[in-house]
Amino acid sequence: MATIGASTRQKIAEISAMVDNNLVGKASDEFSSLVKETSKDALALLKPDLSALALRFQNKRRKTLLGILNTKLGSIEQSGEFSSIGVVSKGLPMSAKQPPMLAKLYSTRFDELRDRHIFQWATYYRDTLMFIFGDTRQKLVASTEWHQQIEDVGRVAAAHATDIFDRGFRFQTEHGLSAEVAEIKSVSGLLKFLYLVISIFMDQRESVTNAKDAEVTWNLASSLLTGILAGFGKVTYADESGWSVLNRNQKTWLPALGFARGSEALSFIEEFPAEYRNDDVYVTIIPALLGIERLAHRFHDEDVFLPRLSRLAIGHTERLDITLTIRQRASSRELLVSSYYSGIIQQSYHLSEALALRAAVVIGRLDSQVAEQDQSSRVLNAGEVKPTSEPVRNFAEMIESVLQSHISNDAETHDPSLLNRNYAREFPLEDPDFRKQFLVQRYSVKRLLEGLESGTGVHLWCSVRRSGKTTAASSLADQNGKLVVVVQTMDHQPHQIEQNIFARKIGEALSSQDALAPDFFKSVVDECILATTAVDTKGKKVVFIVDEYETLFGLIDAFVSRDPSLRFTVALPLLSQMVAFAAKNLLIFMGQRPDAHLILSAQNQLSPLVRQYNFPLFEHYAGATDTEFTQFLRRVLQEHLPFDTSFSDAVYEETNGHPYLTVNLMVDFCDWLIDKEFKHGTAPLGSEQFVKFNKDRLTIAALQRSPHYVFFHGMLAEYSSERGRESEPWLSAITSVLQEIATKHPKAFACSVNTFQQIAAPYGQGIRMTPERFLASGSMSNFLQDKGGQVKPGVRLMARLAASVTAKIN
Question: What is the DSSP code string of 244-272?
Answer without folding.
Answer: HHHHHTHHHHHHHHTTS-HHHHHHHHHHS
